[in-house]
Amino acid sequence: MSSNRESDRRAEELLESLGVEDWASVDPRDLAGVDMRDVPDEALPTDRRCPRCFWPVFQITTTGPHSHALRPCGCRVASVDW
Ligand SMILES: [Zn+2]
After folding, report:
1. Is residue 26 part of a domain?
2. Whole domain around residue 51: which residue ranges?
3. Which residue has the higher pLDDT, 40 or 70?
4. How many domains does the chain have?
5. How close is the Cα of 72 to the center of ligand 1, in Å?
6. How far is the CA of 70 from the centre of ligand 1 (A)?
7. Is residue 58 part of a domain?
């Protein structure tokens, strides 16, 4: 909690190195080689992350009682409670 500035800088450097302006325009496939656990929460525009791949979750599409697709990463989860 004491190194917000540090993580902000890392986040900016990461986005810059990926050539993207913000997370909404990032295609998960472009970041397949990036370990999202290395990306600090402060860098993400949402506090929800995919429990599988740690991508920020912008949208959840429910297709059944135990089937929810996360966007943009595309992972499917059985429950949205995490
Ligand atoms: Zn995911």
Report:
1. yes
2. 4-77
3. 70
4. 1
5. 8
6. 7
7. yes
pLDDT one-digit tens code per residue, 36-61:
888 888 888 888 999 999 999 999 99
User: 8 C-alpha vs ligand 1 centroid, how far in Å?
Assistant: 23
**pTM (2 d.p.):** 0.73
Q: How far is the CA of 3 from the centre of ligand 1 (A)?
A: 26
Query: Could you tell me the distance, in angstroms and rounded to a whole number, from the CA of residue 1 to the centre of ligand 1?
Result: 25
**Digit-coded pLDDT (tens) for 2-45:** 556 777 777 778 778 877 777 877 888 888 888 888 888 888 88
Round to whole Å and give the CA distance between 35 and 63: 28
Query: Is 82 inside any structural domain?
Result: no
Q: Which residues of 29-52 are buried (b: 16+ CB within 10 A; e: fewer)?
A: eebeebeeeebbeebbeeeebbee
Cβ neighbours of residue 43 under 8 Å, at least 6 residues apart? 7, 8, 10, 11, 12, 14, 15, 23
